[in-house]
Predict the structure.
Amino acid sequence: MQVRPILATLHHHKLTTLLLLLQVAFTCAIVCNVVFMIAQRVAQMRSPSGVAENELVTIDSFDLQEAGNSIARHEADLAALRAIPGVRAAAAVDALPFNGNSWGNGIATIAQGPSRLVATAFDGSPGELDALGLHLVAGRDFLPEEYISVDSEHGYAGIDRVPAAIVTRALAQRLFPGQNPLGKSIYPGNSPARIVGVVDHLQQPTVSAGNDNENSTLFPMRLDTRDVEYVLRTAPAQRQRVLKDAAAVLDRLDGDRILQDPQTFEQLRADYFRRDRTMIGLLVASACGLLFVTALGITGLASFWVQQRTRTIGVRRALGATRGDILRYFQTENFLIVTFGIVPGIVLAVAINLTLMRYYELPHLPLLYLPVGAIALWALGQLAVLHPALRAAAVPPVVATRTV
Amino acid sequence: MFAYYLDLALRSLKRTPVLSALMVLAIGLGIGASMTMLTVLHVMTGDPLPGRSGMLYAPMIDARPLARGGSGQRVEEDSPDGFTWPDAANLLRARGADRQAAMSAGQVVVRPPAGDSHPFFERGEFATADFFAMFDAPFRAGAGWTAAQDDAHARVVVLNGELARKLFGNGSGVGRTVRLNDADFRVIGVLDDWRPQPAFYQQASGRVFGAADQVFLPLRTALDLKFHFTGHLSCWGSGGDDRQSDHCAWLQFWAQLGSVAKADAYRTFLAGYWRDQQTHGRLPRAEHAQLFGLMDWLAHEKVIPGDVRMQLWLALGFLFVCMVNITALLLAKFLRRSGEISVRRAMGARRRDIFIQLGIESALIGVSGGALGLLIAQAGLWSVRQRPEGYARLAQMDPSMLFGTLALAIAASLLAGLLPAWRACHVAPALQLKTP
C-alpha cells in the first residue's frame, strides 16, 4: 500500500489529524486504565471468602438483659437454633468476612517481640469451623478444653491467655515462610497461642485493595458480650425459611433482645460490594462513552474528507484505480492515524496508572493491557471508517469530468 | 447581520443533520457527566458550619510509641486514630482555648417510655460540656449540660429533634426521663434537628454523610456506664484495651479559637504540652503537635470517598475527549467550505466576519449541547440520589452550580469552536478561487 501519498495528505491536514491523534491517545490511555480498574474490582468482588457462602444465614442478637451469664445464654440460643429443622450447624461469632466488624491484633512471633502484622481475630463458640464451612487443610479443630472466655469485662483480656489458634494458609505463609506452621507459637497478646490448624481461606471482615485480606486468626474464645452474631448452616433452598424460623425461635426463647440484620451470607456480600457495583457500572459506561465518541469522531472526519476529495477520488478511479484501491486507501489512512495515536496513548496510559497508584490502592498496570487496548482501538478505527470508505469506493470515475 | 449568520449556521448544520446531532449529543454527555460529578463534589466539600467553621480547630497529639524500625518493618506514616483519654482530659483541664470539648461516637439502646414499642438502637455522640456552645448547635428547648455535670457523671441527655418527636410526640420532652441501655437519663435539651453535613466532629468514615446523631450525653457518664462506643480504637503495648488508659487512641478533640493569634498561641501551647509530657515519660515521639482548621481537617481526613474523586476525573476526561472530538469535526467541516469562505473573502468579507459567522455555528452546537448537558446532569443527579450512600440525598443542583453548568457549556463550546473558526478565517481569498 502506498503510505507516502497518505502521509502527504495527512500533512496537508496537520491540525485536524493532530486533534484526532490526541483523541485516540486519550481514549486509549483512559480506556486501558478503566478496563484495568474494572478487572481489579471484579477480582476483589469474586475473591473467595473461605466460608460456605450459599449455605449460611446470619442474624445479629443484642441482649437487653443487664449483667448475667452471656455465654450460657448464647449456648441456650444455639441449642434452640440447632433444633430448627434443616439446620446443620450453628455458632455464635463476632466476625465474618464482609461484615465490617473487625478486631485486629498485632501478631508477634516471639515473646514480647515486635508485632509483625495485624490480624483479625475470629472468635466464637465450639463448632464455628463446621458452621462456617471452613476448609481445614492441616492440623485439627480446637479441643473443648482449649476454649476460654473472651473476657470483654476486662478489656478483652482473653487474648492474653488463649492457648491455641487456627490461621489461614496465607497468614501462615507470611509469618513462617517455607516452614510448617503447625506447632509454632504466635503472640496475639501476652502469651503464646499454638497454631493447631490451617484453613485454606478466610477473608477479613473489611477488604482493602491490597493483598492482605487473609490476615485472619481463629481463636477458641467464647463471646461473653451482649452483642453476638449467630451463623446457621443449612441447605441453600432452605435459607429463607431457616432465617424466619431463627428469628421466631430466638424471640420465643427470650424476647428481651434486639434482633438485627437477618440475612443470607450472599446478601451480606452483595451489600458489602454495593458501591463497587455502582462504580463498575460507571466505569463501563465511561469506557463505552469514550469509545463511542472516538468512533463518532473517526466516522465524521472520514465522511468530511471523502466529500472533500470526491473529485480526486474520481480522477484516481478514471486513471485506473480500482474500488478496492480506494477502500484500502482510506483504511490505511485510518490505520496510520490510529497507530500514531496509540503510541503516545500507551505512554499516557502508563503515566495515568502511575498517578493513580499514588492516590489509590492500585497495582501496576499489567503490560498485556497495552497491546490489547491497541488492538481494540485499531478494530474500532477500522469499523468506524468502513462506512465512509465504502462511500468513497463507490464514487464513479465520471466525477472527474464534472466541474464543481 | 447576526440573524443572517444564524440562518447560515442553521443551514450548515441541517446539511449534516446526523453529524450535527451527534456533536450536540457528545458535548451534552460530556458536560452532563462532568456537572453531575462536580455538583456531587461541590455539595460534599461544603462548609458544615457556615460562620462558625473558621473558629474551629482540631488539634492532634500523637501518643503512640516510636515506630519500630526493625527488619522489614514499615514506619507508620499515618495519623493516630485520635486522642487518648489522658491527653484529652489534660487539654480540657488546661482550658487553653475559648472553648474545647472531647467526644466520641457511640450507640445506645433506647427504651421508649410507653413500654409498648420495642427498644431500638440509636446513634449518638458522647461529649463534654462545651460541645453545643462551641458548635453553635441550635436548641429547640432546654440547653446542654455544664462542666460540673460532666464531672459529676450526671445522667442527663440532649436529644435531636427526630428522636424527641418519636419518643414524646409534639411535647418538648425536656424534664422527661428516657431509659438508655440500663440507666435512666433526664432529658435536659432538645436540638432543632441539627444536622451538619458532613458530621465533621466524628472520626472520618463512610458515616459522616447522611443520618444525624440523635442522642448526646456526657462523655464521662458514658465511660462510667461502659456504654458502647463506635469507631476506631487503636491500642498499643500489652496493657489491654481500656478506653481510659494512656495507650488507646480513639477520642476526637475540638477547640474554638476566636482569632488567628489565638490559634498560633494554642499551637505553641500544644507543643509545650507535648514537651512537658515527655518530661513525665509520655509521648515518646518527637514533638509534632498539629492544629488543623475545620476545612483543612476534613481534607486531611479524606472525608470525600476516593471513588467520588475518581468519578469526577473520569467525567472530566470524557468531556476533554468530547471537546477534542468536536474541535476536529468542526475544523474538518469548516475547511471543507474553504471555497465558499474564499469567495466571501474575495467579495470583501473581513476575517472578523468569517470568524463571527463560523463562531456562531460553533456556539449553536455548544449552546444546544449545554442545554442537553443540563438535562443530562439533572438525570445524573437523580440517579446519584437513588444510590444508597449517605451523601446521595445532598446531590441537588444549587443556583451557583446551575450557573456553573451554563458557563462550562459555553466555555467548552467556545473553546471547541474558536480554533476551527480562527483557522478557517485565515483561508486566503485568491488562492481558493484559482482552482474550479
